[in-house]
Design goal:
The chain is of the alpha+beta class. The chain contains 20 helices and 19 strands. It has helices at about 1-10, 15-20, 25-90, 90-100, 110-125, 135-140, 145-150, 165-170, 175-180, 230-240, 290-295, 340-370, 375-390, 405-505, 510-535, 550-560, 560-570, 585-605, 640, 660-670; strands spanning about 130-135, 155-165, 180, 195, 200-210, 215-225, 250-260, 260-265, 300-310, 310-320, 325-335, 545-550, 570-575, 580-585, 610-620, 620-630, 675-680, 685-690, 705-710.
C-alpha cells in the first residue's frame, strides 16, 4: 500500500490518503477508473498480442528460413550432380574417354592426361574444390568411396561425408590445409576438447561413366569442401534475409556445423561488423550445449531462442546426415533478437505515454467540471478539520436553498456538534474520577503481588532447605548406627581373612580367589561407609583449598580413569584450552571428575566418544573462572530422572550406590561453584562444572544454587 501511495503521489501530485479523504478526488478517481482500465486493458492486450502472435510469427519465419537453407543445401548437391552429369555427357569428355577405352590391355596415358586437364578446367569453371577421374579398382580400394559404390547402381550419388585430414590430403593437399580450423572457447558452450579441428565436411558426388557397351570401369569424383566455404552460406543469407526483411540493425545469419563446430558461417565475431571478410566470421566457435543436446544428440530440430556467440538470436537448427545416415553436423538460420525487443519496448513506451496523456487530460476536465459543485463539501471538510483540532466552530448557513441535501446535512452536523460537546464534558469528568480510582487500585495490587512473590520464593527455598535438612539428619543418624555396627565386624572379618591366608600358606591357593573376593567386598563396604559419612557430615571432611591450574588436574584424571575408558572401548577427545587459575581442593576435584568420567563411560553401550573440555569462564568481557565439560554419546537421561540424579541413594545402575553425584554436587557446592546438566535420550549428556578464581562462601548459597538442568542441544 505504501508503494502504491508513493507512485500515485508522483503521477497525480496528491497522496493516496488525500484521494480517499476528499470527495472531489474520489469522484475524480471513480470517473477516471473506467478510462484507466480501458487504456490499460488495451496496452496489455497489445502486449499479449505482440508476445503471443509476434513471437509465433518470428518462430514461423525462422522455421521457414531453416527449410529454405536445407533445400538450398540439397540443391547444391543436386546442382553438383547435374554438373558432373553435364561433364560426362559433353563431347570433349566423351571423345577423350573413348580414346581411354580404345586399348583393351592398358589405359592410354595420353587419354588420361587429357581427361585430367579437361576436368581441371571444368573444376575452375564450376567452382568445385576437386574433380577427378578414378577407376573402379581405385574407388573400391578407397574406404570413403566403397559405400557409395554399393549405392550407385549405375547412377550418380551425392551426399555429405566427413573425412580426416589425412584422407583429404590424398584427394588434394590444399583441401587438408583449408579444413584446418582453430577452435575458440565460446560462452554457453562446452570447453573445446582439442585445440583445432582438422576434419573436413565434403559435399561429394560420384558419377559412373559407362563405355559404349554399358560397362562401368571409371567414375567421376567431385565435390566441395564446406570448411571455410562462404559462398553457400552467403548465398542462403542473401536469399533468405534480403534487404528490408529484417528490422534495422538486425543481422540474419546462416551457418554450417561439423559436429558442434562452426565451419562455414556469416555470424560476425563482433556485432555490426564493418566488413564481412572471412577473418571477421565466427569460424571455429562452438554451438551452445542445449542446442547440441537437442539437435545432434537427440536428432530433433531447434526452433527457439538460442545464444549465438555473444547475443541471443531467433534460431533454427536442423541436423545434417552423411551418406550413411549418421548425424555429422547442423545447418543453422537465424537473426538477432535485440532489434525486435527494442522495437517491442519502444511500442510499449509509446502506448504508455499515450495512456498518461489521455489520463491527465481526462482528469483535468473532470476536476474542473466537479470543482464548482464540490465547494460546499470542501467548506464542510474544513470545519470538520478545525473541530478535530480543538476549535469550537460551526458550519452555519451555506449559500444553498433549504431543500438542498448539503444544507440539511450541515444543519444536522451543527446540532450533532453541540450534543457532542456536552457529552464530552460529562465523559471527561467521569474519566478523571475513574483514572484516579484505577491508579489507586493498581498501586495496591502491585504491592500485594510483589509481597506474594517474595513469600512464595521464600517458602519454596525454606521447603527445599527443610527437605534437605531432614534427609541429612535421617542419614546422619542412620550412618552413625551403621558405622558403629559395621565398622568393627568388617575390621574383624578383614583381619581374620588375612590371618587365614597366612595360616594356610601354600594351601591358601585353592581358595585364594574366594579369599580375595571377600577382602574386596569388605573394602567396598568400607568405601560405602566412608562415602555416607562424607555426605552426612561434610564439615569433618573439608580440606584446605589452594589455587590450582585446571589442565594438569584433568590430565591426571584421564590417567586415573583410563582403565574404565579402555574397558568400555570408547574414544576420548580432549579440548583443554583453559588458562585461568581457580581455588579448589585437588583430591576432591579429582574425585568429582573421575566420577563423571566413569559415569560417562558406563553410559555408552556401544563404541562412542567422550569429550573433555576446559575453557575460561568469561562474563561481561572478563574472566571469572574456568569451566569443565564432560560430554558423552551415551543413552542420555530422561526428564524425570534428570531432576533426581543428585539425590542420595538414587541410581539407575544395578551396581551403583547412588552417592557419586551427590558427593560431587556437595564438593562443588562447598567451593561455591556451579553444575549444569543437559541431556537428550539416545543422544548423550553434558555435565558442565563452573569454578571461580576465588572460591565463594558456600554458606551464602541456597540448597540448589548453581544447579541447572536442560536438554542437550
Amino acid at each position: 500500500m505504501a508503494r502504491q501511495s508513493s507512485l500515485f503521489t508522483r503521477v497525480f501530485g496528491i497522496s493516496w490518503l488525500q484521494m480517499q479523504s476528499k470527495v472531489r478526488y474520489r469522484i475524480l478517481f471513480l470517473t477516471l477508473l473506467p478510462i484507466l482500465l480501458t487504456l490499460v486493458s488495451l496496452v496489455f492486450i497489445t502486449i499479449y498480442w505482440n508476445v503471443i502472435y509476434t513471437g509465433k510469427q518470428l518462430f514461423m519465419k525462422v522455421k521457414a528460413d531453416l527449410v529454405v537453407a536445407e533445400n538450398t543445401l540439397s540443391q547444391v548437391q543436386q546442382r553438383q550432380q547435374h554438373q558432373l552429369s553435364t561433364i560426362s555427357g559433353s563431347w570433349d569428355f566423351q571423345h577423350a574417354f573413348q580414346l581411354l577405352n580404345h586399348s583393351d590391355s592398358q589405359p592410354n596415358a595420353a587419354a588420361i592426361n587429357a581427361l585430367n586437364i579437361l576436368l581441371a578446367q571444368k573444376q575452375q569453371t564450376l567452382g568445385l574444390d576437386f574433380l577427378r577421374l578414378i577407376s573402379v579398382a581405385d574407388a573400391a580400394a578407397d574406404p570413403d568411396l566403397r559405400l557409395m559404390l554399393h549405392q550407385t547402381q549405375q547412377q550418380a550419388i551425392s551426399g555429405l561425408m566427413v573425412l580426416s585430414n589425412t584422407r583429404l590430403a590424398r584427394i588434394n593437399i590444399a583441401l587438408a590445409e583449408q579444413a584446418e580450423i582453430e577452435l575458440v572457447a565460446t560462452r554457453h558452450a562446452a570447453q573445446p576438447s582439442k585445440p583445432s579441428e582438422s576434419r573436413g565436411l565434403l559435399s561429394r558426388t560420384l558419377m559412373p561413366v559407362a563405355d559404349r557397351s554399358g560397362n562401368v570401369f571409371w567414375y567421376i569424383d567431385g565435390g566441395m569442401l564446406l570448411n571455410r566455404n562462404t559462398l553457400i552460406v552467403d548465398h542462403i543469407r542473401d536469399l533468405v534475409y534480403a534487404k528490408g526483411t529484417l528490422p534495422e540493425r538486425s543481422i540474419g545469419t546462416v551457418t554450417l556445423f561439423l559436429d558442434n563446430i562452426r565451419i562455414s558461417t556469416n555470424v560476425p565475431m563482433e556485432l555490426f561488423p564493418s566488413d564481412s571478410t572471412i577473418q571477421n566470421r565466427a569460424i571455429g566457435t562452438l554451438v551452445s550445449d542445449e542446442v547440441y543436446q537437442q539437435v545432434l544428440v537427440e536428432g530433433e530440430n531447434w526452433i527457439n531462442r538460442a545464444f549465438v556467440l555473444n547475443e541471443w538470436y531467433i534460431s533454427g537448427y536442423s541436423p545434417l546426415y552423411d551418406i550413411r545416415g549418421k548425424r555429422v553436423g547442423m545447418v543453422y538460420a537465424g537473426f538477432s533478437e535485440a532489434p525486435f525487443l527494442h522495437n517491442y519496448l519502444l511500442n510499449i513506451i509509446e502506448l504508455g505515454t499515450i495512456l498518461v496523456i489521455v489520463l491527465f487530460l481526462s482528469g483535468f476536465l473532470v476536476y474542473r467540471g466537479a470543482n464548482s459543485l464540490l465547494q460546499p463539501i470542501e467548506y464542510i471538510h474544513q470545519v470538520v478539520t478545525a473541530v478535530q483540532s480543538g476549535r469550537n466552530i460551526r458550519i452555519g448557513k451555506l449559500d444553498l436553498t433549504r431543500d438542498n441535501e448539503l444544507a440539511q446535512l450541515a444543519e444536522q452536523f451543527d446540532r450533532m456538534l453541540d450534543q457532542l460537546q456536552r457529552r464530552n464534558a460529562q465523559i471527561q469528568a467521569a474519566a478523571e474520577q475513574l483514572e484516579i480510582k484505577v491508579e489507586q487500585r493498581t498501586r495496591s495490587l502491585q504491592d500485594k503481588t510483589e509481597e506474594l512473590e517474595r513469600n512464595v520464593a521464600l517458602l519454596h527455598a525454606t521447603r527445599q532447605q527443610l527437605v534437605t535438612n531432614e534427609k541429612l539428619t535421617a542419614l546422619g543418624e542412620l550412618i552413625a548406627g551403621i558405622a558403629h555396627e559395621i565398622n568393627n565386624p568388617t575390621a574383624v572379618i578383614l583381619g581374620n581373612m588375612e590371618l587365614l591366608k597366612y595360616e594356610l600358606g601354600e594351601g591358601a591357593k585353592v581358595v585364594e580367589e574366594e579369599i580375595e573376593l571377600v577382602i574386596q567386598q569388605v573394602g567396598r563396604i568400607t568405601t560405602i561407609i566412608r562415602s555416607l559419612l562424607q555426605y552426612s557430615r561434610p564439615g569433618e571432611f573439608n580440606a584446605p583449598i589452594e589455587s590450582q591450574a585446571i589442565t594438569p588436574i584433568v590430565e591426571e584424571v584421564l590417567v586415573l580413569a583410563r582403565h574404565s575408558i579402555e574397558q568400555q572401548k570408547v574414544e576420548l577427545v580432549k579440548e583443554l584450552t583453559a588458562t585461568g587459575i581457580v581455588e579448589v581442593n585437588r583430591p576432591q576435584l579429582l574425585q568429582v571428575l573421575i566420577n563423571l568420567m566413569v559415569n560417562a563411560a558406563h553410559a555408552i553401550k556401544v563404541n562412542g566418544r567422550i569429550w573433555v573440555r576446559t575453557y575460561d569462564w568469561i562474563e561481561d568481557g572478563q574472566s571469572i573462572g574456568v569451566k569443565i565439560e564432560v560430554e558423552d554419546e551415551g543413552v542420555g537421561i530422561s526428564k524425570d530422572d534428570l531432576s533426581r540424579i543428585f539425590d542420595p541413594f538414587y541410581t539407575t545402575r544395578k551396581d551403583g550406590t547412588g552417592l557419586g553425584l551427590s558427593l560431587s554436587y556437595g564438593i562443588i557446592k562447598r567451593l561455591g561453584g556451579t553444575i549444569e546438566v543437559k541431556s537428550t535420550l539416545d543422544v548423550g549428556t553434558v555435565f558442565t562444572i563452573g569454578l571461580y578464581h576465588k572460591a565463594k562462601d558456600a554458606q551464602q548459597l541456597g540448597p540448589y544454587d548453581g544447579l541447572q538442568f536442560g536438554d542437550k542441544t
